[in-house]
Amino acid sequence: MAGPLPIGDPAPLDGSLPEQASMGSDSRTFHAYVHIPFCRVRCGYCDFNTYTANELEGVSQASFADRLIQEIKFSSSVLHNSNVHARKLTSIFFGGGTPTQLAAADLVGILAVLRDAFGFAEGCEITTEANPDNVDLAYLNELFEGGFNRVSFGMQSAVPQVLATLERTHKPENVAKAVAAAKTAGLQTSVDLIYGAPGESLEQWRESLEEAISLDTDHISAYALIVEDGTKLARQIRVGDLPEVDEDLQADKYELADELLGAAGFSWYEISNWSKTPANASAHNLSYWLGQDWWGYGPGAHSHIGGVRWWNVKHPSAYSGRTTHLQSPAAGRETLTESVRREERVLLEIRIREGISVEALKAVSADAAKIIAGLIADEMVDPKSALAGNLVLTLKGRLLADFIVRQFLA
């Protein structure tokens, strides 16, 4: 299970939002994240808000879709009553957990309620994460016919030894079968990889990259493993059962990913994400980096509307209790000041290929011009883009993105 929720202000049970949420809402896009918190087993590295069957305390997976539907209907009323501009959804992402632990009919039913509540913008991207072991062509056909157009498979690695370290239970060969079935169904495809598992060699990482490329997907994500406190993996490293993650080797693995993916026709559009074409870039991923509006449905899900951020109660039983009684499931919230919003813009937009405007950097740092000059000299940002008014990271800059952010926000 994930760590503790943030500390914030109390959230009203009627869900009403402060005036700030409505300001400028007609200029922002609207998105939905749907959190399905169920997993067959929990992987040792995972810090997400997920639950196995014996941790549900009487909450039924079979009835969970009904609880989500209650929150969707509730959210529509809250946004209307809070004078937030009505907008159709630009993207929807079902994540978890493992969304495909639910029947395809449940996912399609939730999607139908989102359509009825808000409508879908033209070209709305509708994605679900999926475990390669628990979907087949019939399941994926049902998703496609119900309105889904994209599926993201949790591949993580092609190497059995690495999968065992991460405690992933799927068989490597099932990834190719699942991707092929998704294509047959008419869905766009993406796979997620994780690099830096304890003991993973550079050659093993190359093997995973080459296998992912051979699948001919539209999109590949490659995330560096973060060892989260409280996880089984963190305990195994602490007692010496597994080696610590080598940061220099992590950098080598990122460079290898960028090299191989670039040679295969993929382009990076965010530090950890590559797509075949700009149209294949995840609109949902970009909505987060660009600070758009989204409502997060489900236990522990986070939402953001116009600089107002809130997070739901974590456990499915607490969530079900709130939604059953038509109360907001929010555990707390915060209203961001303008200065915090400017700082968060730097933190997020600096990660994307288009970069962040120099003017936005000057708004948070009086030394921005001096810092940018130093970054150009150190080959961390593209000089032509910087002179044209946008800070765009080079490969070296992407490896040191956190360091660069700290320069501006010190």
Structure explained in plain terms:
With 410 residues, the protein is an alpha/beta fold. The protein has two domains: 19-289, Aldolase class I (TIM Barrel), CATH 3.20.20.70; 338-410, no CATH class. The chain contains 16 helices and 14 strands. Helix 3 packs parallel to helix 5. The longest helix has 21 residues, at 61-81.
What would you give as the CATH superfamily of the largest domain? Aldolase class I
CATH topology of the largest domain: TIM Barrel
Number of strands: 14
In what range is the share of β-strand residues? 15-25%
Q: What oligomeric state do these chains adopt?
A: single chain
Top-tier CATH class of the largest domain: Alpha Beta
Tell me the distance between the termini. Answer: 33 Å
Structural class: alpha/beta
Net shape: globular
Per DSSP, the total helix count is 16
Order of helices and strands: EHEHEHEHHEHEHHEEHEEEHEHEHHHEHH
Report the average pLDDT across residues.
94
Q: What level of helicity do the residues show? A: 40-55%
Quick synopsis:
It is built from 16 helices and 14 strands.
Topology:
Elements: E1 30-36, H1 61-81, E2 89-96, H2 104-118, E3 120-130, H3 137-145, E4 150-156, H4 160-166, H5 172-185, E5 188-195, H6 202-214, E6 219-224, H7 232-238, H8 247-263, E7 267-270, E8 273-275, H9 283-289, E9 293-297, E10 302-305, E11 308-312, H10 316-324, E12 330-335, H11 338-349, E13 356-357, H12 358-362, H13 368-377, H14 383-387, E14 390-391, H15 395-399, H16 401-409
Parallel strand pairs: 1-2, 1-9, 2-3, 3-4, 4-5, 5-6
Antiparallel strand pairs: 6-8, 7-8, 10-11, 11-12, 13-14
Helix pairs in contact: 1-2, 1-10, 2-3, 3-5, 6-8
